[in-house]
Amino acid sequence: MTKLLITRRIAEPVLAQAEKLFDCTVRDQGGLSVEEAADALRHYDAILPTLGDEFTAEAFELAGEPRCKILGNFGVGYNHIDTDAAAKVGVAVTNTPDVLTDATADIGMTLLLSTARRAGEGERMVRAGQWEGFGPKVGLSTHVTGKTVGIVGMGRIGQAVARKCHYGFDMDVIYFNRSAKEVGHPAKRMDTLAELMGAADFVVVTVPGGAETRKLIDADALAAMKPEGIFVNISRGEVVDEAALIDVLKRGAITGAGLDVYENEPHVPADLIALENCVLLPHLGSATTETRQAMGQMALDNIIAWSEGREPPQKVN
Ligand code: GLV
Ligand code: GLV
């Protein structure tokens, strides 16, 4: 019987189906280290991994000729898997696009709104018993409706954020993306990242992670933002130079940041935690019950397709 390793507990109905079809091992002890990933590649026919499992080039090297033939990743992002190294030794990699697009875009809106309207600060004030009552100047913040949102990476998630900003909040949409996108509502493509950063009231980063976008948002990009600007990242921490972001926030060179992702999760720099003008979430983008079940199902469906000799529908390498 095909041996399947599931690296974290996923939704029960999906687990139950997996256990009917495969000889399943469910691990639930945090991410696989490089050595553990290599070991898993040697001992299982298929693996259902997720973010935090280190399927790096080194892991594939250590694994030699792996027994494993497919990594059915739970998640749209797969920057924790070296897909080229996988392909070289005949390991297919699949992901879970589409099913998490709206949930992730909704977290983008949550961060945009809560950072702009200083909801985190206000909440902390109420809980600390420090609220002294309504006043014309208490908790003043930035208006969102009608402003300009700048989207970095106009993929599925970027387009969903754009849609919500345009239809829900009457915002002007500008974007930076390798290719132009026809999105069914006005959206202006900017020629350079600096132009985008400088023209937007709110910047929302939705590019995929990986080598191509590592530190795309560097000190220069951040320096182009308006002092009123608010920066939101719902993609991957590695896309942003975190030290440069902390620097502009500390200096008040931008107004605030809403972050769902960090360079070294789950580590969040103390400097960020100390900043009142940041809203910090623990990588919740896809974390709705419905979405997480759909992601598990899609990851498993890809493994089932492979086990039946079909092409896994969401193959990425
Ligand atoms: C979550 O961040 C994912 O990549 O699905
Ligand atoms: C990410 O995969 C996206 O589709 O935007």
TrEMBL record:
Domain of life of the source: Bacteria
Any Pfam family hit: 2-Hacid_dh
InterPro entries: D-isomer_2-hydroxyacid_DH, D-isomer_2_OHA_DH_cat_dom, D-isomer_DH_CS1, D-isomer_DH_NAD-bd, NAD(P)-bd_dom_sf
UniProt entry keywords in alphabetical sequence: NAD, Oxidoreductase
Domain D-isomer specific 2-hydroxyacid dehydrogenase NAD-binding residue range list: 109-285
Keyword NAD: yes
Stretches assigned to the D-isomer specific 2-hydroxyacid dehydrogenase catalytic domain: 6-317
Record-stated family: Belongs to the D-isomer specific 2-hydroxyacid dehydrogenase family.
Annotated protein name in UniProt: D-glycerate dehydrogenase
Organism of origin: Marivivens donghaensis
Organism phylogeny: Bacteria, Pseudomonadati, Pseudomonadota, Alphaproteobacteria, Rhodobacterales
